[in-house]
């Protein structure tokens, strides 16, 4: 494909791309995933809950994604990105408001997270990557990378605001204001930019982009679908518990609370770099190889966290960068591989099926990390287990083989 075609594609649909990035960054997966660990100390201190009890809420949130993820994909196919996305963003705010109003009931806390998972499902990356996958053909990897970099922006900025809010307003007002800011900002950008791109673009892809690919039933019969799902599940177990537990882990390793927000924000910056760079390389290299490279780096980062405490800021900063690069690449690679191996015709539904395994893995991981740390007394055993899981997941991804033939893609990035 020519450079001119690439430039024309980006110039024509940059509003779509920016709206998708902001929608992703202000959605359920981004805000909750990268800030929950900061709420651990003030919430548990006020209510007297254990680490495991607190992080079980995240397990509920993600396990409900088994239902809400595929449902969001079906709703996007039926009603379009604009309606589903805007409702999901508003539902995200409502869910945070419920958390802020909790009187100290653990049951209500869990029910609030269940409501958050349902109401905010339309704000998941399934919605926004489905949008860009319809418009970008030449540089789909870069487009998905930019879209998913919204999570990195959230990971870099949201912890700083949460740290400020907790010190200034308390955790209740911080929850409520965080949800409100995300809803207002994303709704304005998404509504303005998608509509300004023309009504045809909000409902169907541009004429040159011919929809192709497998049906969901055909995909489910493919060994690749199950290899991808198992790899996603295993990787989610390994790194899905790291982010919500990152702040407590840093405290265990001797990092002062005043420095925690900075390190978590550094993780967010690395996520942005990981998203953009992974998208760039996937357009030029075989995506499973890109995946293996990025997640091998995360093994190095996790190994740094196994060093004896107290750790220096430089050590945890390096670990945060290596983990962030892998976290940034993860969903990009999942979305890209889903699109390349199964096509665009039923992308949102098939990706919704893959998201089930991501949601289950992350949901189990967040709670499992809490239980195991309470049981063993420290994070080292689960960090060692995570390294083994990542190596196994890399092996699965590398067995996917060449991309299926498709006239709509360049063949410059086939498997070796």
UniProtKB/TrEMBL annotation:
Gene3D superfamilies: MFS general substrate transporter like domains. It comes from the Bacteria. The chain crosses the membrane at residues 12-34, 54-73, 80-101, 107-128, 140-161, 173-194, 225-243, 255-274, 286-309, 315-338, 350-370, 382-401. Pfam families: MFS_1. PROSITE patterns: MFS. One of its GO terms (molecular function) is transmembrane transporter activity. InterPro entries: MFS, MFS_dom, MFS_trans_sf, Proton-linked_MCT. Residues 16-405 form the Major facilitator superfamily (MFS) profile domain. Keywords: Membrane, Transmembrane, Transmembrane helix. PANTHER family: EG:103B4.3 PROTEIN-RELATED, MONOCARBOXYLATE TRANSPORTER. This is Major facilitator superfamily (MFS) profile domain-containing protein. It comes from Halotalea alkalilenta.
């Amino acid at each position: 494909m020519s450079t001119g075609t690439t430039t024309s594609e980006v110039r024509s649909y940059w509003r779509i791309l920016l709206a998708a990035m902001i929608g992703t960054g202000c959605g359920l997966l981004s805000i909750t995933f990268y800030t929950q660990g900061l709420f651990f100390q003030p919430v548990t201190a006020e209510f007297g809950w254990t680490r495991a009890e607190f992080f079980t809420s995240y397990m509920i949130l993600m396990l409900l994604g088994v239902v809400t993820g595929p449902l969001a994909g079906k709703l996007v196919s039926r009603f379009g990105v604009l309606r589903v996305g805007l409702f999901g963003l508003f539902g995200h705010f409502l869910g945070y408001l419920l958390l802020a109003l909790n009187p100290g009931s653990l049951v209500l806390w869990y029910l609030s997270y269940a409501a958050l998972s349902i109401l905010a499902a339309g704000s998941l990356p399934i919605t926004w990557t489905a949008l860009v996958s319809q418009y970008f053909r030449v540089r789909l990897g870069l487009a998905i990378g930019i879209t998913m970099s919204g999570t990195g922006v959230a990971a870099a900025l949201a912890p700083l605001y949460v740290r400020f809010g907790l010190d200034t307003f308390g955790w209740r007002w911080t929850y409520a204001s965080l949800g409100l800011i995300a809803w207002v900002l994303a709704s304005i950008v998404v509504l303005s930019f998608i509509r300004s791109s023309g009504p045809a673009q909000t409902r169907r892809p541009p004429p040159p982009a011919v929809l192709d690919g497998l049906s969901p039933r055909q995909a489910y019969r493919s060994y690749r679908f199950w290899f991808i799902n198992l790899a996603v599940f295993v990787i989610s177990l390994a790194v899905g518990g790291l982010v919500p537990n990152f702040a407590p882990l840093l405290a265990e390793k001797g990092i002062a609370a005043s420095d925690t927000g900075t390190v978590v924000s550094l993780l967010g910056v690395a996520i942005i770099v990981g998203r953009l760079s992974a998208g760039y390389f996937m357009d030029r290299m075989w995506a499973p190889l890109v995946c293996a490279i990025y997640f091998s780096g995360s093994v190095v980062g996790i190994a740094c966290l196994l060093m004896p405490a107290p750790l220096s800021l430089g050590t945890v900063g390096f670990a945060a960068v290596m983990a962030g690069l892998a976290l940034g690449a993860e969903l990009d690679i999942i979305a890209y591989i889903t699109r390349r191996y199964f096509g665009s015709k039923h992308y949102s539904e098939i990706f919704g099926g893959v998201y089930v395994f991501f949601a289950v893995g992350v949901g189990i991981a967040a709670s499992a990390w809490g239980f195991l740390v309470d049981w063993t007394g420290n994070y080292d055993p689960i960090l060692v287990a995570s390294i083994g899981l990542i190596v196994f997941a890399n092996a699965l991804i590398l067995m996917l083989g060449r991309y299926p033939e498709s006239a709509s893609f360049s063949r410059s990035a086939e498997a070796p």
